[in-house]
Amino acid sequence: MNVLEVANLNKYFTEPVRNQVLKGVGFQVKAGEFVAITGKSGSGKSTLLYLLSTMDTDFEGSIMINGEQMKGKANRWLAAFRNQHIGFVFQFHYLLPEFTSLENVMLPARKLGIYSKDQIEQRAMDLLKLLEVDSQAAKRAALLSGGQQQRVAIARALINDPSIVMGDEPTGNLDSANSSTVLGLFKELAKERQQTVLVVTHDEDFARRADRRIYMADGQIVEG
Amino acid sequence: MKKRLTNIALSASIAATYMKAKLRQTLIATAGVAFGITVFIFMVSFIQGTNEYTQDVVFQQSPHLRMYNEVQIADQSLLDRRFPNGINQVHHQKPKDILLNLKDVNQVLDELRADPRVQAASGAITTQVFFRLGSSSLNGKINGVDLEREDQLFNLSSKVIEGSYEEVNVKTNSILMGVGLAKRLNVTTGDQILLTTEKGGNFPVIVAGIFKTGLTDIDKQQCYASIKTVQKLLGVPASYLTEIKVKLFDKELAPEISQQWQARYHYQGSDWKKDNASLLEGDVLRRMIVYGVAGTILLVAGFGIFNILTMMIYEKMKEIAILKATGFSDSDVRGIFLTQALVIGAAGAVMGLVFGFLISYAVSKVPFNSDVMITLDHLPVSFKPVYYITGFTFGILTTALSGYLPSRKAAKMDPISILRG
């Protein structure tokens, strides 16, 4: 089954001059696949990821996630969809520094509002345990080390059991030891939990160890 | 619906965390709002208390409704009646010579007293006289009143500072003199003076008491006596009265009732609103000043909230982006910041009401002695709930408005431009 189907995707930037960044991009991703998108700076890979994230709605073509068309949906609908089906991990950890690690992980689930607060807390604790940062649960996020923050961010991305986990340079800010732990985690997620992982990366090592690699140049898919 | 509620609760709990993190700024903003409301409550209570007090002083002396006869120019000349279709010019028309007394006055008084809206009605006879003692001769007014009823209407006996109120009632040819007038004539209780009427008659009377209303105009020019004394002075029969004074249960009805009675009895009429137009106008102006000052203070407090939220939003741009990325909608984000503004506003408003009340209460206990306002022993303060309701609404509205703009900015923020760096 395809979790993600992209067809004939075009994207233009109008500032400072009109410029086509994505040119007829199309590909599919199956459930449980670990995909790395690579390419040089300016190849359009990040732009592609933000389109897939549903946060950027200004595009031509079609994006289907879990069989749902993303084109032409209202902002509120997309926010709810993101909340339930997409998990994010960014280059710079991006936790809310005033909240504890546990609260950070719980936030998307509380927004989803399906489980009770106790259940959510239990699930969040389980995830932190899985990522081996449960000892930091009660600490404010600002006090954690970079590697710990990134793990908490991954736990947050997983709390709602999303169909796709997306990462924008998730290891870009980490040392090699932490990088390889995060990489291992993603692989494990894909294999054991059958979660689709889609990562934009510069990291050659990371890309090589993915199930599949999509190489982009000049707004087109060259390989993969 | 339940989903909506949990969303609001979630926004509120995020807002609470942010406020805790910025406790000092939040407290300062709250204090700003509280200060604005405090000043508003205190000023309104104090100024309104003063207004009400002066109104009470004046209205104690002025009836809600008066009826009298007045010398008037006839609006129709005899020629008009004789030649209704002609063009008639009468130059230098003289005022009609009419008797100033009210017709059938005793019957009318009985009727008025039977009216359920009327608290008390009293007839009076008023005339201009000269008060003479030795070589000094002062112009003034003497009111012949039903002293018992006058006491009901205006609480006159409490204004007597020397001599006896009852004595004036029992003894003919005795008068109650205004304190200013007594000072100018240099008389005290028991002294005899001479009254000269406009017709020229002289009439000796005894000063039986001295009163002080606190209104200089009255104290310097007027005297009270029994109706009989004044009727004797003018040489008119016992049914001759020139004025009816009425106190109503609801004084707001006065203008309307005045119209009705003027039509029914063919007297001239006036009410307390007409008689005290300038005083009432002054009250309105003072109230406008209060609202202006309080509004300015709240505006400044509002700018404080606006600043704090705007700064917070710039500081938290990345976090707003991440909230949106994890599925928080624009309105959730708006809710987070709007909640902060409203909490600051509500807390500030409540504190302001409490402090405003405490200060007003303290001020109302400050002793204050005035030569003019003799019945005043403490500063006058009004404690009407409506000021507190207004103050609270005012505070919430200002903060909601100053919180709305930054919140909308946060809601509209594009997460991608921030996440891409």
Number of E-state strands of chain A: 10
SSE order of chain A, one letter for each helix or strand: EEEHEEHEHHHEHEHEE
Radius of gyration of chain A: 17 Å
Beta fraction of chain B: 15-25%
Distance between the termini of chain B: 37 Å
Most strands sheet of chain A: 6 strands, mixed
Report the sheet-strand fraction of chain A. Answer: 25-35%
The percent of residues in helical segments of chain B reads 55-70%
What global shape of chain A is seen?
Answer: globular
- Average per-residue pLDDT of chain A, rounded, comes to 84
> How would you spell out the order of helices and strands of chain B?
HHEHHEEHEHEHEEHEHEHEHHHHHH
Q: What does this molecule look like?
A:
The complex is a heterodimer of chains A (224) and B (421). In chain A, strand 9 (212-217) and strand 10 (220-223) form a beta hairpin. Chain A is built from 7 helices and 10 strands. In chain A, the strands form 2 sheets. Chain A has a 6-stranded mixed sheet. In chain A, strands 2-1-4-5 form a 4-stranded antiparallel sheet, with helices on one face. By secondary structure, chain A is an alpha/beta fold. The model of chain A has no long low-confidence stretch (mean pLDDT 84). Chain B is of the alpha+beta class. Chain B is built from 16 helices and 10 strands. Chain B is elongated, with a radius of gyration of 33 Å. Chains A and B meet through helix 2 and helix 3 of A and helix 1, helix 13, helix 14 and helix 16 of B.
